[in-house]
Amino acid sequence: MITQKKKTKRTLQAEATKEKIIDATMELMEKKGLSEMTIQDIHRKAGISVGTFYHYYSTKEDVFFELYRKADEYFETEVVPFLEKDPLTTVEKVVLFFRYYALFNEAHDVEFSKQLYSTKNKMFISEKRFMISLLQSIIADGQESGEIDDSWTSDVITNYLFIFSRGLIFDWCLHDGDYQLSDTIVTDITLLMGIFTK
């Protein structure tokens, strides 16, 4: 049996400090936007020194990238167990995946999502992200079981689904979050998956 090492007081303190920096950055992004906020704004909001900020991050963009790492971590620790909990069809897994994707966006202020859904943000197209490889794996398993059409590769279908969902979230941002994103994405992804099922 593998036992996890107990975290030291120093490690816990470092994690708490990083969390303060991330929370401050998220709050400032909602109010000012990434381009307008400064590292001074972040360290003041977090209640830390500028030296402490630079101990953990080199730029405000590094904090921004950390937000994506946390989103991937959320999918790995929170979403995967639900996808594996009950015997689900591939379509059900894909729909559930995107429901959680929408809920993650809804958990933050719509102004925060408006900052993320920018053409300057290339993190969406980074193929090394856990979320992308997770969806690609679900699609590939569905193709292997014969549920999903294999006329397209799993990465092409994955890319198509993400393009669609990002477009929907962009629309949600344009409408200032005035409709239930998670309900809409469930309906739309269910319809869309009809293209890829046998």
Question: Overview of this structure, please?
Answer:
- It is a single chain.
- With 198 residues, the protein is an all-alpha fold.
- The chain is 70% helix and 0% strand.
- Helix 8 runs antiparallel to helix 9.
- The N and C termini lie far apart (43 Å).
Identify low-pLDDT runs: none
Distance between the termini: 43 Å
Number of E-type strands: 0
Report the average pLDDT across residues: 88
User: What would you call the shape?
Assistant: globular
Largest sheet: none
**Taking Cα atoms only, what radius of gyration do you get, to the nearest Å?**
19 Å
Q: Name the helicity range.
A: 55-70%
Estimate what percentage of residues fall within beta strands: under 5%
Q: Which structural category do the helix and sheet elements fall into?
A: mainly alpha
The secondary-structure element order is HHHHHHHHH
Helix count, per DSSP? Answer: 9
What's a quick, concise take on this entry?
The chain contains nine helices and no strands. The protein is mainly α and 198 residues long.
Write the layout of secondary structure elements.
Elements: H1 9-31, H2 39-46, H3 50-56, H4 60-85, H5 90-106, H6 110-116, H7 130-145, H8 154-174, H9 181-193
